[in-house]
Task: structure prediction
Amino acid sequence: MMFVAGCDIGSLTSKAVILKDNKIAGSCVITSKPKPWESANAVMDSALRDSGLSMDDIDYCVGTGYGRDKIPFINEAVSEIACHGKGARWLLPSARTVIDIGGQDCKAMKMDENGKVNKFITNDKCASGTGRFLEVMSRVLDISLDELGTISSRAESPITLASTCTVWAQADVIRHLNNKVPVEDIAAGINTAMASRMAILVNSVGMESDVCMTGGVAKNNGVLSALEQLLGIRIKRIRRADPQVTGALGAALFALEKNKGGSE
Amino acid sequence: MITAGCDIGSLTAKAVILKDGKILSSPVIKRKQHPDEAALEVIGLALDQAGMYMNDIDYCVGTGYGCDFIPFANGTESEISCHGKGAVWQRPSARMVIDIGGQDAKAIKVGEDGSVRRYIYNDKCASGTGRFLEIIAEALDTRLEDMGDLALSSTNNLTLSNQCVVFAETEIISLVNEGKEIADILNALHNAVANRIVSLARSIEPEEEIVMTGGVAKNPGMFSALGKALGMDLVKMKSPQINGALGAALFAMEQVLVS
Result:
């Protein structure tokens, strides 16, 4: 029996996954703390508790995410792209294109039949098309992120946001609210705007089936179905685990390989 | 001959009344809920200050994002043309105009007669517009008018790593929490805005003399940051904020002369 862990320290949330051989023994998502090492310790503690283990039981741990170099307990750090590719492939073995939406970035990556990432593109310069965009908008609408994803299905005449920039789009949304446009219609417009930014990235890496989405936004059905419409394909839903932990899962899978390699 | 120009911007409304090539009045007011309200109020103020009535005005040209809602305008002219026209009238040797507005930024190359040769503008991204300064002023609870002077009092060099206003706002809040001086943060902010505008201006090859128009030109921190980022001297104008309205009033004058 072998226990390994993956720890993904993101800008908004931190995730940890513990694998027992090739099975998820425990996982956890927390809101990131001001210091990356604080997030790492806290999320790891919870994931260990979730699996009834202690740090001593972990044979190997891989870190990823923007704070990966600040995680005190890892044996190795691996890039986010590699971890997301790896994790996505485990969750959906047929995946060739992965769209990952983080709190402050958006990535699209393409993999070959063996799961090796051979092309990727990232937007971390502009808040539009990242989780941050949805966060800002849900705050303006005074609804939760979850609600933003669900109520758009009830929209009767969705609005179109004229601006890409989050700052200008926020002003657009406020104007629509002042004009008493139903929140569902505004939410639908927001999800479509989000999806169209993501579609630009997907199209520039060149889409190949199957397509799946990882990261917290993958749980937002409004964005998913808007993106399906824009891309004209069906996006495979991830059911094997929470899509938000994909990066940490990938990190744990790397740890598993490393540890196997080392013990052989 | 008496003409008027009215510039309805996103944050302020400006009017200029011209009599035989002299500015009689040039008030600036804050935006109103509707552009037509702002237009009526600012022209009313301009007429009061000039001691005139609406029917004394031979021709009025509107400009700015709200130019189609000015009830009394006889015609409209683009902001780009008005800023070029106004700048060369104010400063005949000006060959490039940089205008930073509340929702956009423009770089305009002009000929001797104030006609537009080339221009470029950004209204897609809030970074590099006056809105960036406004949002940070709110976040730091600083008055917009004080920001420039505060930035100039900075003693430590600081650079913002984010370009996006949304991300930069978060970065700035963490800089404050780390105990960085507000002056240094504001200096970094002004440099960030200036760098964005300079990369815009560079794409049409800046030419001296360069003047800065729009309300942001009154901000000494922005003026200095922009000059530094350009590596060229900027020329100060007497009335940068009313430059667009002035250009409109000059176009109105031409209209009267033609007819």
